[in-house]
TrEMBL record, chain A:
Pathway: Glycolipid biosynthesis; glycosylphosphatidylinositol-anchor biosynthesis
Family: Belongs to the PIGU family.
Listed name of the protein: Phosphatidylinositol glycan anchor biosynthesis class U protein
One of the record's GO cellular component terms: GPI-anchor transamidase complex
Organism: Hermetia illucens
Compartments it resides in: Endoplasmic reticulum membrane
GO terms under biological process: attachment of GPI anchor to protein; GPI anchor biosynthetic process
Pfam families registered for this protein in UniProt: PIG-U (PF06728)
Segments passing through the bilayer: 6-24, 82-100, 149-172, 184-205, 211-232, 277-296, 308-334, 346-369, 375-397
Membrane topology: Multi-pass membrane protein
UniProtKB/TrEMBL annotation, chain B:
Bias kind Basic and acidic residues: ranges: 563-593
Region (Disordered) location: 562-593
Range of residues in the leader sequence: 1-21
Keywords: Signal
The keyword Signal belongs to this UniProt entry's keyword annotation: yes
Protein known as: GPI transamidase component PIG-T
One GO biological process term: attachment of GPI anchor to protein
GO cellular component terms listed in the entry, alphabetical order: GPI-anchor transamidase complex
Length: 424, 593
């Protein structure tokens, strides 16, 4: 098993390395679906250059990376630039590895729970078994390593690679039940991209064990770490301008460059006096709108809650990119036992396939050929979002159905006639 | 009543006599005509008003100086002001350097008093532009902090001594409006600033029909105050109004031309308020016979270059008929005028494929035999985000390092990118200065009415000090008349040239779509909201497949709230089960039948 693991990691590294040194890396780096204003490597380079020449990188509006990462990358760029691709590859591989370890721990704890619980007799195929742990962990890792989205994101050297790395560490320590490191990585990621703040909810559910005092302790730890990080950033740059350039930039959605999300055309075409209202509405939609109902519904399953929240963030954040999508897609094999109940697999698959293929075509027609216009690209990004939304709602419903069937059996009859599960 | 009127008249009369006797104001009008080598004619008008202000005099009492200008100096703490309104592009390669350079569209810069703070300068600048917008009927009110920069190296103050100049550091504001269209509505208020208005004198030649029908025309106002370092009250206020016009000989009907052909009429005498009214004609090339013959020809040797000027003093000409000068081409077969290019020329262009990424390239050509030090001030508006790390300067594809880079990053909708690069252009070579930028996507209301026309980038300004005066006609900083440039040899000649202004077509959204986009995007958001909230809030139940298959029964249930038998049974069971289950469990148990 170990050998297999190393082989996968090696293959993934080789694949990424050859793409980076190939001529495709330039094309990949320039795609709007992969590089957004928030994560593009070109902007990190610009920030590093400005910092090196004594200009505050946050005085303009091109740089949106937090000081720690910016200065770190700046150091690498100035001292050993040739190692940069290896850094990104290593981080991506580590992300996959932590996901693998996390999956193992999650599945084992689910197994422990399953042993205690009593399930209906005909539900063997949807029950988790000891034999499933190793293959499912492998699937999770492979889903991240060989997903074209994550490969593209790594080849483009976007800072989403860092985001995914920190989030994987968050999930790793969440599964391992270690509060401080878990909160640390969540705080780091929250300071960088705001939206992961909602992942505090699964952490609270995981660590609190129904005690309010513990829950408060978790939240306090998170806030304290955020404060410490802010001061760390402040001491590095010497002023607070980085706040507006990172979190402010994400919240206010200042750059209207098209991406795969729902924000860009909506706020391009927005009437100025409604802008603030819709901005707040859309940001709420991406963060707290689903937080409370889902936290109540999935309070016994923080991992499922985290997965769903992660996916919703990736869909509804202001500058989404394929790297974010790759990360939540890697969680799907973790819920393999729900797959049986997912009704829209084919539709979702078609949505993904068609939109991903057509997206670059329509971009080319709009920007280069001039024969299409913005509506075409907007339409296809809406389609892509719709596909993802179907996937997420389907997974959520499948999870609920599975839980129901584990208790009540898979074959349901009313008066001898076959019955089906609905929501009322 | 009559007595009162008479008294008032006497008082006014004597005041006028006293003021005119006090000769501290002077006015000069000059016209310089230079036939250009490739069949074009450059005519340059300069109207200079100079007012020596002594202790006890204030700016409220003006004679020749226009009152609006005096008020501007009084209110806005301006030390030096330059405005130009230009249509067309000056072709340096064939026309040489103009006496006064200006960029296409509107260009304006001002130096403010050294004792103002930064915020005060900004506020004064904004007020100044708005005021001048009214004075010149130009869109100068569109100048604000989003298109204003503070040049650091490329511009030099032309007032005072080195002491006041060092104080002035940081008190300059510069802006261009490359989209500005210059027309007759600018010419009329510009002429109104002159003491003789447009009725008599050289300004009567500037009729809108003929000025705006040319290759290139540029109206400008230059204002400066020169104050004594010791006695602060002793100042000289100097206003120069210039008009630079380039005619095409072909449009004037052949190789011969005259003042009448160019301006539609002859000159109706000199402005009687003017101290001097002189026409200078460049006769260095001796290609034309002038009629009437000039009474005087001046030879000017400046920086090793000799130029001949024919001089017509209009004050001395008789006033009984319109004064006219005719240029009759001398018969010279097989002669081709040789165009010797000026030492430094520059061009700027955009390189891009598609509307995603591009490069702004500035090409500076040095045809002088020695290297030249230049300062390039790029003019990059906020909607062209440039990446400083991509700034490269190359000579013959070899990279060179700029001596100095001054950069203030821009901010969307807030401030432009300010980039000044100092570098040495080696002898007989071309430096290509390029910087990458991204195409930006604006909000739909930020596009101009004709969105696909594109957005303008103002000219870059290139400043240098030339060692010789080949093609150079500029007035030295210590002079104020065109005549002061004769025999004015100096160690170096400060030169500013401007590149083309550029046009960039940004990708546009569909302007007819706002409602559709809002509806569609909200629908997609609702697609997630609906199912997630129903999963989170509704309870899970089972239902017979048959009941659900019948649309009619569904409809019935919806309409009449009537429940089928099966459902009643299921629900009863659920309710029974619910009581037995733990609180908080939302899964209902349904036993197999």
């Amino acid at each position: 098993m170990r050998k297999k693991l190393v082989l996968y990691l090696f293959l993934a590294a080789v694949l990424r390395y050859f793409l980076i040194i190939s001529k495709f890396s330039r094309i990949i780096r320039n795609r709007v679906e992969i590089s957004t204003p928030l994560n593009s490597f070109k902007r990190v380079q610009e920030g590093a250059y400005l910092y090196k020449h004594g200009i505050n990188p946050y005085s303009g509006d091109l740089v949106h990376e937090v000081p720690t990462i910016l200065l770190g990358l700046s150091w690498v760029l100035n001292n050993c630039e040739c190692l940069l691709p290896f850094l990104f590859i290593a981080l991506d591989l580590l992300t996959a590895f932590f996901l693998y370890e996390m999956t193992k721990m999650v599945l084992r704890s689910q197994l422990d729970q399953a042993r205690k619980a009593k399930y209906a007799p005909d539900t063997e195929d949807i029950q988790l078994k000891t034999d499933d742990v190793e293959p499912l962990s492998h699937y999770v890792m492979m889903a991240y390593l060989f997903n074209p989205f994550s490969v593209a994101s790594c080849v483009a050297q976007t800072t989403t690679v860092f985001s995914n790395f920190f989030l994987s560490l968050y999930f790793f320590f969440l599964a391992k039940k270690q509060i401080t490191p878990c909160m640390l990585f969540l705080a780091i990621e929250t300071m960088r991209s705001m939206y992961p703040v909602v992942l505090l909810a699964p952490a609270v559910l995981q660590f609190s064990e129904n005690s309010l005092a513990k829950a408060i302790k978790v939240v306090n730890a998170f806030l304290a770490l955020c404060g410490i990080l802010s001061f760390l950033h402040y001491s590095m740059i010497g002023n607070w301008s980085f706040f507006d350039s990172t979190l402010g930039f994400i919240f206010h959605y200042r750059d209207l460059q098209p991406n795969i999300g729902v924000f860009w055309y909506f706020f391009t075409e927005m009437f100025e006096h409604f802008r603030t209202m819709f901005l707040v509405t859309f940001q709420m939609n991406a963060t707290i709108l689903y937080l409370v109902p889902l936290s109540i519904k999935l309070r016994k399953d923080p991992m499922m809650l985290a997965t769903i929240l992660l996916a919703l963030i990736a869909i509804f954040r202001s500058y989404p990119c394929v790297g974010d999508i790759a990360f939540y897609l890697a969680f799907l094999p973790l819920w393999k036992k729900c797959w049986k109940f997912m009704a829209q697999n084919f539709i979702v698959f078609c949505f993904f396939l068609v939109t991903v293929l057509v997206m670059p075509t329509l971009w080319h027609l709009w920007i280069y050929a001039g024969s299409a216009n913005a509506n075409f690209y907007f339409g296809i990004t809406l389609g892509f979002c719709t596909g993802q939304i179907f996937l997420v709602t389907d997974l959520l419903f499948a999870h609920v159905k599975r839980e129901f069937c584990l208790k009540n059996g898979q074959k349901l009859f009313i008066d001898g006639k076959e019955a089906k599960i609905i929501l009322e | 009543m009559d007595f009162k009127c008479a008294t008032a008249f006497y008082i006014l009369f004597w005041t006028a006599v006293i003021t005119s006797a006090n000769h501290n104001e002077e006015f000069h009008e000059e016209l310089y005509v230079k036939p250009l080598p490739n069949g074009q004619i450059n005519t340059f008008f300069q109207f200079t008003t100079r007012w020596k202000l002594e202790a006890g005099q204030n700016l409220d009492h003006t004679r020749l100086m226009p009152r609006t200008i005096a008020e501007i100096l009084n209110i806005f703490d301006v030390k030096e002001l330059h405005i130009s309104l230009t249509q067309g592009l000056w072709r340096y390669e064939t026309w040489g350097y103009p006496v006064v350079d200006s960029s296409p569209g509107a260009e304006m810069w001002a130096w403010f008093n050294g004792n103002l703070t930064r915020a005060q300068v900004d506020s004064q600048w904004k007020k100044l532009t708005s005021t001048l917008s009214g004075v010149l009927c130009a869109s100068l009110n569109f100048i604000d902090m989003t298109n204003t920069v503070e040049p650091k190296y490329g511009f030099r103050p032309q007032f005072g001594t080195s002491k006041t100049n060092s104080e002035a550091n940081g008190h300059i504001r510069y802006a261009t409006l490359p989209r500005e269209i210059v027309c007759t509505e600018n010419l009329t208020p510009w002429k109104k600033l002159l003491p003789c208005n447009s009725r008599i004198g050289f300004s009567s030649l500037l009729t809108s029909g003929h000025v705006h029908n040319t290759f290139y025309h540029s109206l400008a106002v230059h204002l400066r105050t020169l104050c004594d370092d010791e006695i602060k009250e002793n100042c000289i206020i100097e206003l120069r109004e210039t008009a630079n016009i380039v005619y095409d000989q072909k449009l004037l009907g052949g190789s011969d031309f005259s003042l009448r052909k160019m301006f539609g009429q002859g000159l109706n005498g000199a402005c009687s308020l003017a101290d001097t009214s002189i026409i200078y004609v460049d006769v260095t090339n001796d290609r034309y016979t002038l009629t009437p013959e000039p009474k005087e020809v001046i030879t000017s040797t400046r920086g090793g270059v000799t130029t001949l000027f024919a001089v017509y003093n209009v004050k001395e000409e008789s006033n009984d008929k319109l004064f006219n000068i005719a240029w009759v081409a001398k018969e010279r077969k097989n002669s081709v005028p040789i165009i010797s290019p000026p030492p430094l020329v520059a061009h700027r262009y955009i390189l891009n494929h598609g509307q995603e990424r591009g490069k702004v390239v500035t090409e500076i050509t040095n045809s002088h035999w020695g290297p030249l030090n230049v300062v390039v001030q790029e003019n990059i508006p906020w909607y062209v985000p440039v990446y400083l790390h991509t700034l490269t300067a190359t000579v013959n594809k070899e990279r060179i390092t700029p001596k100095l880079v001054h950069y203030i990053p821009g901010e969307q909708r807030e401030r432009p990118y300010h980039l000044e690069v100092a570098l040495t252009v080696p002898a007989k070579s071309v430096v290509r200065l390029s910087i990458d930028f991204d195409f930006i996507f604006l909000k739909w209301l930020e596009y101009p009415p004709d969105a696909n026309h594109g957005h303008y980038l103002g000219s870059a300004v290139i400043s240098t000090v030339l060692p010789n005066t080949k093609n150079y006609t500029g007035i030295p900083v210590d002079g104020y008349l065109f005549a002061h440039s004769f025999n004015a040899s100096r160690p170096g000649y400060f030169l500013q040239i401007r590149t083309e202004s550029l046009i960039l077509t940004l990708p546009t959204p569909d302007f007819s779509m706002p409602y559709n986009v809002i509806c569609l995007a909200c629908t997609v958001v609702a697609l997630a909201f609906g199912p997630i909230h129903s999963v989170a809030t509704k309870k899970i139940v089972i239902e017979s497949r048959e009941t659900s298959h019948s649309i009619l029964s569904k409809l019935k249930r919806k309409l009449f709230g009537k429940k089928t038998k099966e459902e009643d049974v299921a629900e009863e069971k659920e309710v029974a089960e619910e009581k037995t289950e733990d609180a908080g469990t939302d899964l209902e148990k349904e036993s197999e039948c």
